Amino acid sequence: MSQLIYPLRGGVHPPENKQQSLQSPLRRLAIPGELVFPLAQHIGAPAKAVVEIGDRVLAGQMIAEPNGPFSAAIHASTSGTVSAIEARPIPHASGLWGDCIVVAADGKDESIDFVGCENPFKIDHESLIEKIRHAGIAGMGGAGFPSAVKLNPPPNNNIDTLIINGTECEPYITADDVLMQERSEDIIRGCTLLAHILNGPDRILIGVEDNKPKAIAALEQSLLKLAAEDLPGIDRVQVVSFPTKYPSGGEKQLIQILTGKEVPSGGLPAHIGIVVQNVGTTVAIWEAIKHGKPLIERITTVVGESLKEQGNAIVKLGSPSQFVLEQFGFQEKSCARLIAGGPMMGFSLPDSRAPIVKTSNCLLVPSHQEMPDPAPAQACIRCGHCAEACPAGLLPQQLYWYAQAKEHDRLLAHNLMDCIECGACSFVCPSSIPLVQYYRASKGEIRQAEIEKEKSDRSRQRFEFRQKRIERAEAEKEAKRLARKKAAEAAKAKAAANAGAAKTAPAADPVAAAMARVQAQQSDPAEQLAKLERAVNNARNRLNSAEEKWQQAEGDQKAKLESRFKQAQLRLQDAESKLHDFKQQSAGQNPAPSNPTSASPTTPLNIDSDDPIERAKAKAQQRLSMSPLEKAENNLSSLNDRLKKAQEKASEADDDKRAAMEAAVEKLKQKKTSLEKEIDELKAQAPLKENTATAETPVDPNSIDDPIERAKAKAMQRLNMSPAEKLQNSLQALQTRLAKAEEKAASADEDRRPAMQAAVEKLQEKIKTVEQEITEFKAQEEPAKPAESANESSGIPLDAASAAIEKAKAKAAAQAQMSDSEKHAAQVESLQQRIQKAQQRLDKATEEGNDNVDAFRLGLEKLQAKLKELESE
Amino acid sequence: MDISSLHPLVLALLVLGGLALVFGAILGFAAVRYKIEGNPIVDQIDNLLPQTQCGQCGHPGCRPYAEGIANGEEINKCPPGGQDTINSIADLLGVDAPELDAEHGTESELSTVAYIREDECIGCTKCIQACPMDAILGAAKQMHTVIADECTGCDLCVEPCPVDCIEMREVEVTMQNWKWQLPSPLAAVNSDIIASDRQTPQETKQEDTAA
Fold first, then answer.
1. Taking CB atoms and an 8 Å cutoff, what residues of chain A touch B50?
2. Which contiguous run of DSSP H or E holds residue A302?
3. Which of A87, A30, A85 shows the shortest CA–CA distance to A63?
4. Residue of chain B with shortest Cα separation from A461
5. CA distances (Å), origin A645, targets A578, A582, A618, B205
6. Is B198 a residue whose pLDDT tops 60?
7. Of residues B191 and A70, more confidently modeled
8. The CA-based dihedral angle spanning residues A76, A78, A82, A86, taken in that order and rounded to the nearest 10 degrees
9. CA distances for A442 relative to A8, A416, A542, angstroms
10. Rounded to an integer, what is the distance from CA B11 to the centroid of its chain?
């Protein structure tokens, strides 16, 4: 069965230069003194070192474990001790140094016991993959993709074709060619094992370019030989040779050549049911599973005109390039540059100490003649050779323009990411433009831009979250502030309610309430005393320490400390005076309440009670029941106390405080004098009032102290009274009011006098109308109960009021019968009488030298004016 | 009433008027139903800005500047974004791309991240409050440190530091973020001369003497 070959689009035919390295047979290189194992040897996450400096390692021992799924283990390739784990030059295009495990070889090359397995085809899929992973096998063709990942395609991709890549299309390199000649049987066995891992694809194709006839022959021979063996799937293995063309060894290109299928842009071969493995990788996998030998060595082509001999060698991974080259007679002087990989896709190594790694298929050290410096780039002439050469079917010159202009969108639109960087375009370019460099750089930039975009999105998110968080914190703060405010208000309301409760039944006195609040706030006197004592102690301690320091200190510090010491002294004084004050206060507080209690006979309440609220209540009640005089006296006594204290304080205080203290004392003194005046006035008024009170109400309500009780009693009386009595009562009240008003008018100031007199006159009018009413009422009642009224009038001892009523009645009766002229005459008469009375009063006043003489005179004059008026009428 | 009896002109007017009403209603409904909140151009511009939130443009963050641009502000005030950002915004808005306004700062080739010299940090948290990215980790009287991955290099934390222990360091090139450089454009500029013309006088001299 012959396999159909599909032609590769594009491609170039560079000089092959494969003969140089095929001259000498494959050799095994010596063990270098020091081996370097970079932790990042492949695409994916770097491995994680599991050895420490000084550890002894054996060949095949894992020294770094895979870190995540896209990673492969690293093994020591010979025995020795770990001498360092540090940054060393690594084979990377950037020339950067990377973390490496450095092993100083002991030359014994002892290895661990490799645990193989008799029949790998009986092991299940998962454990095989795991074994490959731990054997550290990565693609040995160039990119170094971890093989375990490649052999574990997504479950929905049914793999129908396995391709073993023995193409090796790059010039100079013959490592795979030699491997296929030497290890053809292992390759066949390995690919059947891979087919087993991939659940037996329909086809197993080993693709080899036709420029390796020896390799093809060896493979076909082995295939025939192994067909007799019982290898599952060997009947499906096929060796396919096809015309040499660069870059048919590219994975996608090889797939196209062998199957005619094209891997979709951005996709994987697995997406179209194909898996490709390099021949070197296939052998490594076979060895790892069958013999348990991890990937610790590989065949590398060492080639170039600056070497004495060129050829292939089995090299221990980790051998420095310099060491390998020296084994082949490296002449550094004639070397143009050191290239890792082939001339088309390889990269220059700036440092020859970089070690051989899993992907190092070739070390190329050409002479200047062999590989001159690239000619200077010239302008693109739009010849289109590059487009013809491109195996990926891209438009290299367009990409070149866009790459120069950094138009990433256009580059992506022209599928830059499908470029395999094979270098065919650069090879054919007549202007020798390093096109691939542009594409590599642009790819890097695009990736960078993507990363930055991702980062900026994350930054935006973080920034927005931060803004939100700050806003929320603000809102919470505001809410807390509001809550605190509310709580404070509620507390205030509660305190007010408490104070209200403390005042209970009697009307609230705001001063008393305030006092109660203050006292409620103040803690127990004992506690306060303790507090003050503590403060004094503290101050004293501070003073002592300050003094000590002061004495110890010198120079500048001394002045500073001195001031501090003085401050402490002042503080102590302050605290002591406070304590002293408090002691006095608490001493004075006990006798003080006894004064008001004795002064107010109505409420013998005990103010000494401990509870401040109770005390406040008691005080408030006392104050309510106190007369203004008593209140004033109370105030005076408390003022006296305060004055005394203030004077004491003033005398104790420092110079600067003294002025303020003295001012306070002055104020208190003023207050005191004003209070004393008030008291005098009140005392003067008090007897007068008492007299009037007894005069106006000779009935028992007067004896009741409480004003409310009195009012109640009066109201009761009024209810029981007959209308006549009521009227009489009101008449009485009016008369007393009149008397009072007259008195007041007499004693009032100049400016208020007219108003007073007007009020007096009004009252007089009212009295008159009431008197009239009474007479009318009496006149009605008298015929009905003449006897009664007679009894009443004669039987009951008449007081001044009833006498007045009688008079008024008589007057009213007389008036009722009088004619107008008679009325007039009567009025004149009464007026004359009043004038007489007023005259008497005036005389009396002038005799006594009373202040109110003028008032009396004025009243007299008014009466006389009225009389004249009447007479003229 | 028979429609056909109407004058054709009146009929046409009626039909057109009816159509206008119907489509007007549909459009009105669509305008309400599919209303887009906010200005979508602001989002697009914001997407192009580098999100360093550095405030060099004079706005308190990238989004406010995007809003400013949407309202007609100049597009060349973003030094962290540099010419690339200006170009892409110009592309989006269909205007000519101006040069970066040097008044707001210069574009730096190298990206930087803040670094706190931890021995000197006194733990004042001032930089934490200044960082728009929440990229500084620490607490009062505890040493602070920068989460380098989240730092945008906006510089805002350097100024508030009372002990000047924050410095801006260049982002280290690692295997992960290394990339190939574009070939020198000079070669392309001088591409119209032949190879031997490229040699410097000294080189020519040396060759002569060697000959």
1. 452, 456
2. strand A297-303
3. A85
4. B133
5. 12, 10, 25, 111
6. no
7. A70
8. -60
9. 26, 8, 74
10. 58
* For chain A, counts of helices (H) and of strands (E): 28, 17
Give the gyration radius of chain A's Cα atoms. Answer: 62
For A422, list phi and psi in degrees, rounded to 5.
-75, -25
Nearest CA in chain A to B179: A444
**Which of B179, B192, B198, B203 should one mutate to test binding to chain A, selecting the residue with the greatest count of A CBs within 10 A?**
B179
> In sequence order, what are the residues at sequence separation of 6 or more whose Cβ sits closer than 8 angstroms to the Cβ of residue A685?
none
Q: At what angle do helices A800-817 and A723-747 cross, to 10 degrees?
A: 100
Structure tokens at A399: 């990409």
- Among partner residues A40, A406, A466, which is closest to B175 by beta-carbon distance? A40
Do residue A456 and residue B51 have CB atoms under 8 angstroms apart? yes
Q: Is the pLDDT reported for residue B39 higher than 80?
A: no
Quote the tokens at residue A38: 């970079």
Alpha helices (H) along chain B: 8-33, 40-48, 62-70, 82-93, 126-130, 185-189, 201-210
**CA-to-CA dists, residue B21 to A495, B6, B13, B29, angstroms:** 71, 21, 12, 12
Domains of chain B by start residue, with CATH? 40-104 (1.10.15.40), 110-170 (3.30.70.20)
Give the tokens for residue A602. 């109505």
H helix or E strand, kind and range, residue A568: helix A556-589
Name the nearest CA neighbour of A426 among A398, A385, A372, A394. Answer: A385
CA–CA distances in Å: residue A672 to residues A511, A669, A680? 18, 5, 12
Rounded Cα distance between A429 and A377, Å, is 9
ipTM score of the complex? 0.77
**Residue A788 host element (H or E):** helix A786-795
> Which residues in chain B touch residue A448, judged by CB atoms under 8 angstroms apart?
177, 179
Q: Is B74 on the interface with A (CB under 8 A)?
A: no
Q: How far apart are CA B128 and CA B142, in angstroms?
A: 12
3-state secondary structure A431-497: CCCCHHHHHHHHHHHHHHHHHHHHHHHHHHHHHHHHHHHHHHHHHHHHHHHHHHHHHHHHHHHHHHH
Find the helix packing angle between A525-552 and A556-589, rounded to 10°.
Answer: 160
Residues of chain A with pLDDT under 50: 1, 505-507, 590-609, 689-704, 784-798
pLDDT of residue A1: 46
Mean pLDDT of B166-177: 85
Where do we find the tokens 């000079």? B186
The answer to whether the beta carbons of residues A249 and A170 sit under 8 Å apart is: yes
Tell me which DSSP letter residue A111 carries. B
**H-helix segments, A12-124:** 19-22
Please name the residues in contact with A721: beta carbons below 8 A apart, sequence gap of 6 or more: A729
Neighbours of B147 (CB within 10 A): 14
Pairwise CB contact (< 8 Å): A462 & B134: yes
Residue A138 forms beta bridges with which residues? A146
Going by C-beta distance under 8 Å and a sequence separation of 6 or more, which residues neighbour residue A398? A410, A414
Q: Which amino acid is at A235?
A: D
pLDDT of residue A311: 93
Radius of gyration for the alpha carbons in chain B, expressed in angstroms and rounded: 30
**Integer Cα distance of A667 and A650 in angstroms:** 13
The phi and psi torsions of A74 (rounded to 5 degrees) equal -125, 140
Residue A599 tokens, joined: 């002064």
Which residue in the block uniquely carries the two structure tokens 């440190």? B145
Q: How far apart are CA A263 and CA A602, in angstroms?
A: 114
Q: Rounded CA gap, A89 and A351, in Å?
A: 7
Residues with Cβ within 8 Å of A771's Cβ and at least 6 positions away in sequence, in order, are: A731, A805, A808, A809, A811, A812
Give the largest CA-CA distance in chain A: 174
